[in-house]
Amino acid sequence: MVNSSGGVLYPARLPEFHRLPATGAAADLVAWFWIPEWDIEPGGTSRQDIVGYPALNLVVENSGVMLSGPTTRASHRDLRGRGWAVGALLRPAAVAALIDDPSALVDTVRVLGEPSLHARVTAAMSSGAGHRERAVEAFARWLVDRVGPLDESAHQANALVEVLGGADAALTPVEAATRLAVSVRTLQRMAHRYVGVSPAAMIRRRRLQDAAQIVREDPRADLAAIAAELGYADHAHLTRDFQAVLGIAPRVYRAELGD
Question: Could you give all domains of the chain from N- to C-terminal order, each with its CATH number?
Answer without folding.
Answer: 11-147 (2.60.120)
